[in-house]
Amino acid sequence: MSRWSLYTWKRDGRSLRRAVPALAVLAAMLTMSAGVAAGAAGAVERDVLGSGGLTQVELSSFEGDASVRSLTASALRDAGSVPGVRQVVGDYSSVLYAEEAGTYDLTSHTLTPGDDLPVSAGAIPAVLGPKEVVLPANAQGTDFTPLLGRTVAFGYTKASGAASGTTGVVQLKIVALYDPRWQADGPGVAYLSEDTAAFLAAARAGQGTEVFREKEGAQSAVVVVEHQRQVAAVTKALQDDGFSASAVSDRVRNLPGLFGVADLAMRVGVLVLALGALGLGAVRASDSARARLGQFAVLRILGTGRPELRRILLGEAMLSGGVAGLIGTVAGTGLSVTLVGPLSDVLGLPITVADALPGPAWAAAALLLPAAALAVGTLLGSREVLRQDPYLTARAHG
């Protein structure tokens, strides 16, 4: 890059620096998308896969779908007999509500090996007891912190007919509280042992626990495999046996909703940024060279060749692309870091500032693509203009 490139880029309003704003916006969008996707992936890797998800398979039950095997007690026993399976835990859902003080209604779930709750107070035992419960620190206006370690009466529904029921009371000890921002199963969830969760779900259906587990079955289940290398074989064996089975590591990496869009956006963004910079470079270079045709004609008459003029334009392109890439990368990174809080709420997992930083490859793409594509576009866009006869051009521009 010659000093003339820097001089014309700074002083001449017709230079290629006019391409900087548009390229900076494209680079910022790419960097922000990369940061958002990286933040989601980092949170999932740390909070879900870090809890043993690499050795887990999830079973799902779809009501009304005869092609998918129901997760009844006998079916779960069959799943547990597959070679390589160490444990199978079924998830049963019901509702716990305030029996004494408070107005809360908490959805209840089984605490499965796939749940890595961010405990804020107390401690979750290795095996949750049948009379123990883990609650959010606060939910629906109720602060559970003063109740930690105490046995509390909770209400639950006991169906007595097709559309009628009574209230039952269950005494549960609150052994731990978790950060309510963690919402993998939704907001305000009470986590119970498998037997207690099944008991509440059976009562709500008006059935005995064992009858319910055999007839209705669990909503889902987590299969713990002995070693990571056995996950694929176990998943295939379960699928062949009629289960809807998927490895947790595969499922959580297919980021849903906003994060899936961000992941797609950063991949499309590379193509858009490259094509945008290429097209913008061709158009801007052609316009810039045409606007300075008289200027270039005089330089050629004085002995400056076309290669030297191209080098001036290429220098302007590199400067414009470099500045746009730097501005876009900094702005996009700042936006992704600013969105850490809202994105944590959407995902239900805490995302740190470090998580939201775009990966080196994506940052490099945002930095380098504008300059590279703008330079190629400049070579293409200036070719025809610089071929014109300088004497005729100088005479035309008087």
Automatic annotation (TrEMBL):
Keywords: Cell membrane, Membrane, Signal, Transmembrane, Transmembrane helix. It is found in: Cell membrane. The chain crosses the membrane at residues 264-283, 317-341, 361-381. InterPro entries: ABC3_permease_C. Residues 270-389 form the ABC3 transporter permease C-terminal domain. It is a multi-pass membrane protein. Residues 1-37 form the signal peptide. Coiled coil: none annotated. It comes from the Bacteria. GO terms for cellular component: plasma membrane. Its main location: membrane. This is ABC3 transporter permease C-terminal domain-containing protein. It comes from Streptomyces spinoverrucosus.
